[in-house]
ATP-dependent DNA helicase RecG (Bacillus methanolicus), 682 residues
Amino acid sequence: MNDKLNQSVTAIKGIGEETAQMLAEMNIFTVNDLFEHFPYRYEDYRLRDLAEVKHEERVTVEGKVHSEPSLVYYGRKKSKLTIRLLVNRYLIQVIFFNQPYLKNKIAINDTITITGKWDQHRQTITASSIQMGPYSKTKEFEPVYAVKGKITVKGFRRFMNLAFSQFGEYIHETLPLSLLKKYKLMNRRDAFKMMHFPLTSEDVKQARRRFVYEEFLYFQLKMQALRKFERENSIGVIQKYDLKKVKQFISSLPFSLTKAQKRVTNEILSDMKSPFRMNRLLQGDVGSGKTAVATIALFACVTAGFQGALMVPTEILAEQHAESITRLLEPFGIRCELLTSAIKGKRRREILQLLQAGEIDVLIGTHALIQDEVHFHKLGLVITDEQHRFGVEQRRILREKGENPDVLFMTATPIPRTLAITVFGEMDVSVINEMPAGRKTIETYWAKHEMLDRILAFMEKELSKGRQAYVICPLIEESEKLDVQNAIDVYNQLTGYFQGRYRVGLMHGRLHSEEKEAVMKAFSKNEVHILVSTTVIEVGVNVPNATVMVIYDAERFGLAQLHQLRGRVGRGSEQSYCILLADPKTEVGKERMRIMTETNDGFVLSEKDLELRGPGDFFGKKQSGLPEFKVADMVHDYRALETARNDAARLIQMKEFWEFPEYACLRNHLYQSGALSGEKLD
Ligand code: ADP
Ligand code: MG
């Protein structure tokens, strides 16, 4: 595509084999790679007033040396030189690491100019560069690059200079002119130039803006193209449901739908009616009414002459859902059945037979639903609850059970929108962002561990009213064994404390499923009053009489997870409480506890969590699936992400996009990215 820039860096005059090898260590092989190695920050040489500089910001100041430099060695090559500097009326400290020779160059009453990072608490600048004498304006900005081995930042700047003067003119535009104009974006060549040789901070800002948009647009084009082709090439089922009956069913519900429920129901129904296969994610907070929407979809599916399936992660949950859904659908002559691994022998054979014969309309169960022996007669719709608990493989098997059934994934883990449109960019997303009216909000408190006595007293008060409590145990990452031990310790402690008054149950991942089942049953029948558990409790349990949730070491959990845990209470008509026991050490940790006490909105929390912990930590280490961007930042540049997504969706639908030369650069990129396999290059 761009032969000049795809040459090896040795094509640059002044860069030989040896340098090329060192650059290769930094994954820079071609001229283009070099151009795309962007600075990770800029040294700002503008003189600033310290009063306006924030903690940890970089700053350049001029001042008068106020004390003899003092030099301390530690280790063989490490040293720290400290001076006191009078900057205007501030007396601050300046530290130079590993530059012992400066001791003889700096004397009392000298005027010097230094640049470095400001520590407001210690009134100290850790200097990264020094200029003897007063401030003289040279360059406002200089790029700082991540470098490796023998390559220095200065050296790297020089390579960039050489590369630019020789190859700068070959940098081609890769965005259509119409988009550049629309958003007043810099052209690509100028943008590279301003990233590497900026004069002002505005230069950097504008150059960055261009690359952010470009990266997001390319990424979103790929996702939107995948989505379009997945839809159009899939042979879905057209479900001609009976709208009149569906409306009747909706009005038979014991409540009227919220606006959000109506909206997502319409989105789902129109997918079902279409010839494309539905591939939709339904997000909504715990209790927002997802299951109600799912039930309507299942009803519609049956009126269209198809079978529906609902798959959930645990047996307890399957039972609960089967019970409530059957209650709603049965009056309409719809036959629902439950299938879990606990259902065996004759009963199981009977269900399988009826299912294959098409006598069962809706099947509800755990992943027992996707075993080989389960055959549907005419499967039209598959709904999975708590989507993130199912592996990709399981979802694939399920999809293949019927003739391309429509698939709806439901999740109560609110995923911030920026992540949803990135990670699930090829799926359609529906969001229930509204709670049914009249819900009591759960009161959340943050307490230090030393207040445990008071918390136990509070629990006792609730228990005496006939209520129940959950106690979630400390989480120790990567060690289920320690988690279990923690749960056992807390269990023993509480058993001792409530001895003879209330019964305590214990739940953790090492129990057999029958044991878990037994504990859960006892708790839901109020035979056990306090349930001590590890986080295995998280998914779906419904015990409306439980009104207290105590979470030990709450600072160790993500906000999304805390919110999930909190969602176990507040399910009945009584006021519920969530108590976070935490002694966070960091500001971020304290901030997270505060946010928990301030909001009950899962989406607000998930956005905050993303901000505080970053996209990598949001999904946990294992399954992030996040794309890597060179310049763009999903969290801070979310507006550009939204814009790029809308543009990508619009472009993909335009006839001109597939034909006009103006869009050739975007099309080529799509073909190269593999999103459009088997299509010709142009
Ligand atoms: P989710 O599956 O999102 O956790 P559910 O569908 O189970 O939520 O709904 C939680 C509770 O709220 C259920 O008892 C359900 O009957 C009730 N519910 C659902 N939608 C509404 C509504 N629009 N108005 C009042 N109550 C509702
Ligand atoms: Mg369809």
